[in-house]
Amino acid sequence: MLRCFSLIALGAIALTVPAQAQDLLVKASRIVLAPGTELAPGQLLIRAGKVQYVGDEIPTEARQNARVIDYGKAVITPGFVLAQATLGQDADLAEAAFAFTPDLLAAEAFDPWHEDLDSLAPQGITSFALSPSQRNVAGGIAALAKPGTTKAGDHMGRIAERELHLHLSLNRAARNQQRAPTSLIGALDMLRTVFTAAKSGVQGGPDIAILAQVLDGSRRVFAHADTYTELSGLLDLARDFNFEPVIVGGGDAEKVMPRITEQKAGIVLSTLRPEMRLAQLRLPGKLAAAGVPFAFGGDPKQLRMSAVLAVRHGLDKNAALAAMTRAPAEMLGQETNVGALRTGCAADFNVWSGHPLDLHSSHLASWVDGQLLAGNEPKEDR
Amino acid sequence: MRRIPWHLPVLLPLLTLAAPVRAQEPEKSEKPTPKAESPAAERGPGRGNRGNRAGARRRGGARRNRQPVTAITAKFVHPVSGPVIENGVVLVRGERILAVGKQGEVRIPESATTRDFPNGHVYPGLIDAETDAFTDPATQRGGLDAGMALADDLQLRHNRDDSLAAAGITVAYVSAPAGQGAIVRPRREGFEVWEGKEKAGLQLRMTSGPRPTHALQRQQQLDGLKKTFDGLDKYEKAKKDYNKALDKYEKDFAEYLAWHEKNKGKKKAGDGKPADKTESAAPAGRPAGRGPRGRRPVPPGDGKNAEPLTAEEQQTELAFETLLEILAEQNAQDPKPAPPGPKGVAQKPSGKADGKDKKKDGPPKRPSYPKPFKEDPKKETLLAVLEGEMPLRVEAHRPDELRAALHMQRKNDVPLLVLEQAYGAGTVAKELAETGATVVLTEVLPNSMPELYDAFDPCTVPQALHAAGVPFAIATGKARSAPLLPLMAATAVGKGLDAKAALRAITLTPAEILGIQKDTGSLARGKFADLIVCDRPLFDSDSRVLFVLGKGRTEFEGN
Q1: CA distances (Å), B420 to each of A285, B319, B411, B424, B473, in order?
Q2: Do the Cβ atoms of B176 and B139 come closer than 8 Å?
Q3: Rounded distance, CA A309 to CA A287, Å?
Q4: Distance (Å) from the alpha carbon of A284 to chain B's nearest alpha carbon
Q5: Which candidate in A318, A358, A359, A361 is best for mutational testing of the B interface (most B CBs within 10 A)?
Q6: pLDDT digit string (tens) for B110-147?
Q7: Are B129 and B203 spatial neighbours (Cβ–Cβ below 8 Å)?
Q8: How far apart are CA A88 and CA B440, in angstroms?
Q9: Using an 8 Å Cβ cutoff, are A141 and A166 in contact?
Q10: What is the dihedral of CA A87, A88, A89, A90, to 10 degrees?
Q11: How confident is the model at residue A284 (pLDDT cuts 50, 70, 90)?
């Protein structure tokens, strides 16, 4: 009777094993958990789309029951995080009639079937901040989105975090002769007026509520600014209302470097191109030397190339990798979810044949939430 | 009986002298030709040791000794034409490489200056097979025609576009959409044109670029371009006819002069008139009427700047001379003065018998100068291309454009065809291999294509060409992209190309395409000392150029 019971118990346990088989044990000769933290050789146990265990922490039982994905000599890095993108949906991410719409949610304009989402994983981008357009002074609230697939295997993105930072813009695109503001001083005045109202505690609508969150530090501000005057105006505003902005663009950042450092501003850089001025190509290296947090942004297809160009012009490889993973995740306030492969983070990772910032390395695969989105699994799995 | 090669007596002593060093040479297939050797440094001891040239030998020997030897030692030496040498050394004497090998196996002279790079990687100087460096931006709009040489208008831009040498590029082919490209040596403070390669290729653009075009529209455009070589037959025939006529003129004029020379004494005796002016007009050692180079004839006359006689003037002169001859003969036979002819015009002899007598005894008719032939520099260049003196470099992007270029090559028997910016070459790789065309690829970087060229991936083309056996070079196309040349090759490696083939594509293969492989492109004894030293493997993104040597001269030295 006891033996019979034991057999039934064993059978019951066996039935539970298929649930455990959903776990993935990902192996590679080198796994970069976060820039500067590596396992060689490395192992990750992925459960329900998240990193459950890392390296020696993996329990023997879980290790035995997991499906093994062994990438051999490859290198695994966290998936790239794009700190600012509109992904071809720019027209739907700006209210043309009004320049000041801080309470609009970019997530509401998100098209999960948009074709531009398909191109992200092959570039190694596993999450991105869907941002309001730069055509409005206060465009709205950005969202964290990710490429993904349906159960049928079709590409379909999803919103991972509905509300992130407030998105402002002081650059030329935000000035419009058809509606106010038409100038930089007009844009700064507009912002100063509403920030003053929010600071004074005047009861207002949702606009003022969003700005109040900025003032109390519960919501970050990303702001497009490229030229010296735009950057100076933004930094003045940040100083006067005591917030730490993240500058998007920052072409002339070198000219205001001391102030950027002093005010603890971050920078999301535009796409770097070979034909750019040397000062622009060397800017990432100088930002790293000055301790300014920065991330690569701009054209998703050029994200890796931007980092390579920065490395070519003096930036350290680890710092460049951080500027595509950990740094943007921290700027977005999502460092516990994306940008690293620590326990509890989403299983978003890329597989490379070598260092991701060496162009002779091939991109082998991209996984998002534990699902293979681009590339192939290795042949030797069990 | 087999003949002994003429150069054997020269080479044997050379080989004997160099034996201890040559034993470690990684490459034996690329011996320098005697022509490529530096005349002073590489002259064999046998030469100059002949009789009264002993002094010359001493001078030659002293010159050789004075040339400093530099030893460049590094962790790795990548000769390209041979395996990688760990703990290698490159010996440089003057402007040439003296030896390449392993440290300890290559004897470094005590007097040599040693440059040590303990963790460095030595590569041949990079060769950019297509760049717009040193060109006037205006020429990049296609304002030149085939007859115009870009080398005549090279200049510095005085910005970072000039700093090819700092990027490790020691040789570059500069080009524009049209005209004749040139091979240059980028230098620390400028550039120098490679001697003899001022006209190194004829550029032709067979593409409308990344614009929305219909295939039929492109076809019409390409059909037009295919006619580039049309009409050359007529031109060549006219040129040959002219040359023949010129030869005949020379011969006839020589006979004409000879007759006058023969009858000079008779004439002087007859009427005391001076000899024909034209006799003294012809310079010694060169037939009258032939120019100093034989190709651009100078019409007969009193001096260099004499105007050519028109046909009418020539006839008048001839008639006058004939009249004088007739008068002289009549005076000799009949002392009575003959009545002058009507208005002084010579009377043509009538009757067959008179004609025969004239041919036999009379002066030959002064030949008339052939109608001048107008040389067309554009067509001359096209002829040079057809004769294989320079390659035809066709910019073609799409497969149909590439096929049109191949068709043109076949139709006109173009010996050397280089296809530039051949983004669609992957699909026509087999055809390329069959025709023997070579390819210069640009934009080999991730996602470098404009939207309308999304269908092309230049990063995968090198592997496709390599697999098909098509020689190809990877080039920047733009001076500003010079620091990215190794990264372009690295990108091709990331897309499956063998790393050795990628390194070759920016060193030895472009040298072959440019026809300078005997002098540069790899680290081998006798070649120019074109080399770079990097702190890391060249294809790593963070690899830095530490040292650049171009033709033995330090062109860049990093911190």
Answers
A1: 35, 62, 20, 11, 10
A2: yes
A3: 15
A4: 14
A5: A359
A6: 999 999 999 999 999 999 999 999 988 877 776 667 77
A7: no
A8: 34
A9: yes
A10: 100
A11: very high
Q: Please enumerate residues of A whose Cβ is less than 8 A from a Cβ of B.
A: 274-275, 278, 301-302, 304-305, 308, 311-312, 316-317, 353, 355, 357-363
Amino acid at the residue B129? A
pLDDT recorded at residue B352: 45
Coil, strand or helix at A139: strand
Residue with tokens 């000599």: A73
Tell me if A359 and B447 make a contact (CB, 8 A cut-off).
no
Q: What is the pTM of this model?
A: 0.79
Class at the top of the CATH hierarchy for domain A80-331: alpha beta
How far, in Å, CA of B258 to CA of B288, rounded?
Answer: 12
**Cα gap A249→A238, rounded to integer Å:** 17
Cβ distance B133 to B186 under 8 Å?
Answer: yes
Q: Which residue intervals of chain A bear CATH 2.30.40.10? A: 14-78+342-375
Tell me what ipTM this predicted complex has.
Answer: 0.88
State the pairing for strand pair B169-174/B126-131. Answer: parallel
Span(s) in chain A for CATH 3.20.20.140: 80-331
What length does chain B have?
559
Structure tokens at A165: 């930072």
- Count other C-beta atoms under 10 Å from residue B268's C-beta: 12
Please say whether the beta carbons of B518 and B32 come within 8 A.
Answer: yes
Q: Which residue of B has its CA nearest to A304?
A: B446
Question: Which of A75, A358, A362 should one mutate to test binding to chain B, selecting the residue with the greatest count of B CBs within 10 A?
Answer: A358
Measuring CA to CA, which residue among A189, A165, A196 is closest to residue A175? A189
Please answer whether residues B118 and B546 qualify as being in contact, where contact means their C-beta atoms are separated by less than 8 angstroms: no
For residue A363, the chain B residue with the least C-alpha distance is: B494
Q: How confident is the model at residue A66 (pLDDT cuts 50, 70, 90)?
A: very high
The rounded distance, in Å, linking the Cα atoms of B210 and B233 is 35
Q: Are B123 and B78 in contact (CB under 8 A)?
A: yes
Mean pLDDT, all residues of chain B: 78
* Of A274, A361, A363, Cβ closest to residue B481: A274
- Report helix, strand or coil for A276: coil
**What DSSP line would sit under B273-325, residue for residue?**
PPPPHHHHHSPTTS-TT--TTSSSPPPSSSSTTPPPPPHHHHHHHHHHHHHHH
Of A85-94, A211-220, B504-513, highest mean pLDDT = B504-513
Confirm if A222 and A245 have CB atoms less than 8 A apart: yes
Predicted confidence band of residue B360 (pLDDT cuts 50, 70, 90):
low
State the amino acid at position B187 in one-letter form: R
| Cβ within 8 Å, pair A359-B160 | no
For the domain covering A14-78+342-375, report its CATH number: 2.30.40.10
Q: How far apart are CA B521 and CA B126, in angstroms?
A: 8
The whole-angstrom distance between residue B159's C-alpha and the CA centroid of its chain comes to: 29
